[in-house]
Amino acid sequence: MFEAARLGDQAAIVALLAIAQPDIRRYARAACRGSADAEDAAQEALWLLFRRVGSIRSLAAVSRWLFVVVRRECLRLARRAGLVPTEPIDGIDLERTFASRPDIEIRLDIAAAMEALPAQYREIALMRDVREMTIDEIAGERGLSREAVKARLHRARMMMREYLAR
Protein backbone atom coordinates (compact mmCIF):
# COMPACT_ATOMS: atom_id res chain seq x y z
CA MET A 1 0.00 0.00 0.00
CA PHE A 2 2.80 2.46 0.85
CA GLU A 3 4.46 1.97 -2.53
CA ALA A 4 1.12 2.52 -4.31
CA ALA A 5 0.60 5.72 -2.28
CA ARG A 6 4.12 6.84 -3.10
CA LEU A 7 3.38 6.34 -6.79
CA GLY A 8 0.25 8.51 -6.57
CA ASP A 9 -2.62 6.01 -6.15
CA GLN A 10 -5.31 8.18 -4.51
CA ALA A 11 -7.05 5.25 -2.76
CA ALA A 12 -3.73 4.13 -1.28
CA ILE A 13 -2.95 7.69 -0.15
CA VAL A 14 -6.33 7.94 1.60
CA ALA A 15 -5.75 4.54 3.25
CA LEU A 16 -2.26 5.60 4.38
CA LEU A 17 -3.64 8.82 5.86
CA ALA A 18 -6.36 6.87 7.69
CA ILE A 19 -3.76 4.49 9.14
CA ALA A 20 -1.36 7.29 10.12
CA GLN A 21 -3.99 9.61 11.60
CA PRO A 22 -4.23 8.05 15.12
CA ASP A 23 -0.44 8.05 15.53
CA ILE A 24 -0.18 11.64 14.28
CA ARG A 25 -2.86 12.80 16.71
CA ARG A 26 -1.11 10.97 19.57
CA TYR A 27 2.24 12.55 18.62
CA ALA A 28 0.56 15.96 18.47
CA ARG A 29 -1.07 15.63 21.91
CA ALA A 30 2.30 14.68 23.40
CA ALA A 31 4.40 17.25 21.51
CA CYS A 32 1.98 20.13 22.05
CA ARG A 33 1.49 19.02 25.66
CA GLY A 34 -2.28 18.83 25.33
CA SER A 35 -2.69 22.41 24.12
CA ALA A 36 -5.36 23.42 21.64
CA ASP A 37 -2.63 23.52 19.00
CA ALA A 38 -2.41 19.72 18.93
CA GLU A 39 -5.22 19.42 16.39
CA ASP A 40 -3.69 22.09 14.16
CA ALA A 41 -0.30 20.35 14.30
CA ALA A 42 -1.92 17.00 13.44
CA GLN A 43 -3.77 18.53 10.49
CA GLU A 44 -0.58 20.14 9.19
CA ALA A 45 1.27 16.81 9.44
CA LEU A 46 -1.52 15.00 7.58
CA TRP A 47 -1.50 17.69 4.91
CA LEU A 48 2.27 17.44 4.50
CA LEU A 49 2.09 13.64 4.32
CA PHE A 50 -0.55 13.94 1.60
CA ARG A 51 1.55 16.45 -0.35
CA ARG A 52 4.92 14.73 0.08
CA VAL A 53 4.14 11.02 0.18
CA GLY A 54 5.75 10.65 -3.25
CA SER A 55 9.08 11.95 -1.96
CA ILE A 56 9.31 9.64 1.07
CA ARG A 57 11.57 6.76 0.10
CA SER A 58 10.60 4.08 2.58
CA LEU A 59 7.82 3.12 4.93
CA ALA A 60 10.32 3.03 7.78
CA ALA A 61 11.00 6.75 7.31
CA VAL A 62 7.32 7.77 7.57
CA SER A 63 6.93 7.42 11.33
CA ARG A 64 10.09 9.36 12.19
CA TRP A 65 9.32 11.99 9.56
CA LEU A 66 5.80 12.51 10.94
CA PHE A 67 7.07 12.81 14.50
CA VAL A 68 9.57 15.50 13.44
CA VAL A 69 6.90 17.39 11.47
CA VAL A 70 4.47 17.35 14.39
CA ARG A 71 7.11 18.41 16.93
CA ARG A 72 8.25 21.32 14.77
CA GLU A 73 4.69 22.40 14.04
CA CYS A 74 3.86 22.42 17.77
CA LEU A 75 6.92 24.58 18.41
CA ARG A 76 6.00 26.95 15.56
CA LEU A 77 2.42 27.31 16.85
CA ALA A 78 3.65 27.88 20.41
CA ARG A 79 6.00 30.61 19.19
CA ARG A 80 3.22 32.26 17.21
CA ALA A 81 0.97 32.21 20.28
CA GLY A 82 3.77 33.78 22.34
CA LEU A 83 4.14 30.72 24.57
CA VAL A 84 7.76 30.16 23.57
CA PRO A 85 9.81 33.32 23.28
CA THR A 86 12.20 33.64 20.38
CA GLU A 87 14.40 36.28 22.02
CA PRO A 88 17.05 35.40 24.59
CA ILE A 89 15.79 35.57 28.17
CA ASP A 90 18.28 36.31 30.94
CA GLY A 91 21.16 35.53 28.60
CA ILE A 92 19.70 32.15 27.54
CA ASP A 93 19.18 31.74 23.80
CA LEU A 94 16.18 29.42 23.50
CA GLU A 95 16.82 28.78 19.81
CA ARG A 96 20.25 27.44 20.66
CA THR A 97 18.83 25.42 23.55
CA PHE A 98 16.29 23.74 21.28
CA ALA A 99 18.97 23.12 18.69
CA SER A 100 21.24 21.42 21.20
CA ARG A 101 19.50 18.08 20.97
CA PRO A 102 21.41 14.80 21.17
CA ASP A 103 23.51 14.01 18.10
CA ILE A 104 21.45 10.92 17.30
CA GLU A 105 18.27 13.01 16.94
CA ILE A 106 20.02 15.49 14.68
CA ARG A 107 21.47 12.67 12.59
CA LEU A 108 18.04 11.05 12.25
CA ASP A 109 16.54 14.38 11.17
CA ILE A 110 19.25 14.90 8.56
CA ALA A 111 18.91 11.32 7.30
CA ALA A 112 15.14 11.73 6.98
CA ALA A 113 15.63 15.04 5.14
CA MET A 114 18.13 13.39 2.80
CA GLU A 115 15.73 10.49 2.17
CA ALA A 116 12.95 12.93 1.33
CA LEU A 117 14.98 14.49 -1.50
CA PRO A 118 14.21 13.49 -5.09
CA ALA A 119 16.84 11.03 -6.37
CA GLN A 120 18.60 13.48 -8.70
CA TYR A 121 19.22 15.91 -5.86
CA ARG A 122 19.95 13.29 -3.20
CA GLU A 123 22.73 11.75 -5.32
CA ILE A 124 24.46 15.09 -5.83
CA ALA A 125 24.13 16.05 -2.13
CA LEU A 126 25.53 12.69 -1.01
CA MET A 127 28.44 12.92 -3.42
CA ARG A 128 29.34 16.44 -2.28
CA ASP A 129 28.53 16.42 1.41
CA VAL A 130 29.13 12.80 2.38
CA ARG A 131 31.70 11.52 -0.09
CA GLU A 132 33.29 15.01 -0.19
CA MET A 133 33.71 15.00 -3.96
CA THR A 134 34.47 18.25 -5.78
CA ILE A 135 32.01 19.87 -8.17
CA ASP A 136 34.24 18.85 -11.10
CA GLU A 137 34.42 15.23 -9.92
CA ILE A 138 30.64 15.05 -9.57
CA ALA A 139 30.13 16.65 -12.98
CA GLY A 140 32.52 14.17 -14.57
CA GLU A 141 30.98 11.13 -12.90
CA ARG A 142 27.40 12.17 -13.67
CA GLY A 143 28.06 13.62 -17.11
CA LEU A 144 26.67 17.02 -16.10
CA SER A 145 27.98 20.54 -16.46
CA ARG A 146 29.43 22.31 -13.41
CA GLU A 147 26.46 24.67 -13.46
CA ALA A 148 23.97 21.77 -13.40
CA VAL A 149 25.78 20.19 -10.44
CA LYS A 150 25.85 23.48 -8.56
CA ALA A 151 22.16 24.11 -9.27
CA ARG A 152 21.16 20.62 -8.08
CA LEU A 153 23.31 20.93 -4.98
CA HIS A 154 21.78 24.33 -4.20
CA ARG A 155 18.24 22.96 -4.69
CA ALA A 156 19.01 19.90 -2.56
CA ARG A 157 20.28 22.05 0.30
CA MET A 158 17.28 24.39 0.05
CA MET A 159 14.87 21.42 0.17
CA MET A 160 16.72 19.99 3.16
CA ARG A 161 16.54 23.35 4.95
CA GLU A 162 12.80 23.52 4.24
CA TYR A 163 12.31 19.94 5.45
CA LEU A 164 14.32 20.53 8.63
CA ALA A 165 12.53 23.80 9.36
CA ARG A 166 9.16 22.03 9.64
From TrEMBL:
Coiled coil: none annotated. Residues 21-81 form the RNA polymerase sigma-70 region domain. SUPFAM superfamilies: Sigma2 domain of RNA polymerase sigma factors, Sigma3 and sigma4 domains of RNA polymerase sigma factors. GO terms for molecular function: DNA binding; sigma factor activity. Residues 108-159 form the RNA polymerase sigma factor 70 region 4 type domain. Keywords: Sigma factor, Transcription, Transcription regulation. InterPro entries: RNA_pol_sigma-70-like, RNA_pol_sigma-70_dom, RNA_pol_sigma70_r2, RNA_pol_sigma70_r4_t2, RNA_pol_sigma_r2, RNA_pol_sigma_r3/r4-like, WH-like_DNA-bd_sf. GO terms for biological process: DNA-templated transcription initiation. Belongs to the sigma-70 factor family. ECF subfamily. PANTHER family: RNA POLYMERASE ECF-TYPE SIGMA FACTO, RNA POLYMERASE SIGMA FACTOR. This is Sigma-70 family RNA polymerase sigma factor.
